[in-house]
Amino acid sequence: MAKLYVLLSLSLSILAISEQKTPIVITTWNFVNSTITAWNVLKQGGYSLDAIEKGTSICEEQQCDGTVGYGGSPDEDGETTLDALIMDGRTMNVGAVAALRRVKSAASVARRVLEHTKHSILVGELATKFAVQMGFHEETLTTSISKRMWLKWYYKDHCQPNFWMNVSPDPSKFCGPYRTTDDFTHKNYDWLPLTKIDRFNHDTIGMVAIDNKGDIAAGTSTNGAKFKIPGRVGDSPIPGSGAYADNTVGGATATGDGDVMLRFLPSFLAVEEMRRGASPTEAARTAINRIATHYPNFMGAVIAMNMDGAYGAACHGLGDVPFPFVVQDISMDQYKIETVNCSWPLN
Length: 347
Fold this sequence. Notes:
Elements: H1 2-19, E1 24-28, H2 32-43, H3 48-62, E2 82-88, E3 93-100, H4 106-116, E4 121-123, H5 124-133, H6 144-156, E5 167-169, E6 178-180, H7 186-189, E7 205-210, E8 216-222, E9 243-246, E10 250-256, H8 258-261, H9 266-275, H10 280-294, E11 300-306, E12 311-316, E13 323-329, E14 336-340
Parallel strand pairs: 3-4
Antiparallel strand pairs: 1-7, 1-13, 2-3, 2-8, 5-6, 7-8, 9-10, 10-11, 11-12, 13-14
């Protein structure tokens, strides 16, 4: 009888090990190098916050898709600014920066906000001042590529497309500023082409990680929308919108048309749906459907993971192109790229 008990206990232990999914990291899009970097932290017993910071920082350094880090998505004035967030699901603490100027390491600056202030978000020029106080180096975020991109948009394309509404161009200026129009009609709207929202315009790295202690963290980094109105901040640095984490439930992160998505706090909603018993896939679908019901033309995706390491995703607005995300956990020899179909409504 004793031998049977030992064998049964051993079998259950082996089964538990074989089903173990944590530590684990999931990442939006096909940002493989960021996933590998974060996984290397986790597999060595590192903290989930470290995995998020280092993983998103790799994307900043490598300028993923031209929409993360320096040298991409210049605003109307030709300047690149950065947004980033990091959230600790153990303490429910958040650090974020928005419209960060002249400092490349946005994710690391967000981590310093979390660890060295009682605030949650610092923005603009004064976020840069804080970064310098924390030892970060000031340098231009403009590159030859981003400069050429802006020059073409400004001189050849006459500042189109852009994000203005209900305004008319000032005829005395080559390219803006703009004047409000009291009697705004469809006729004077014709000069405003639609801004294309796609992977290479609203592409954020979002990550969720669980370490071997069960601590969950989530984070984002982006340089925002191309040719945005200076000062614009999207969803990425907003807790509950760009990302959210709670050790007792799980974590989620979002990517896409941030001006629309932040109105619905999709990452928070996905976590709350998992709290109510939904699977990660169901939770992500609920968050996406909530947005699409009001904005059927928006582009975006949500990835979600519960505290046990089960994960899922949902997306909208990519047409026939599936949305990719990267996963690596303790059961895998290497990372895996998953995809999800973006047809709507999602069932």
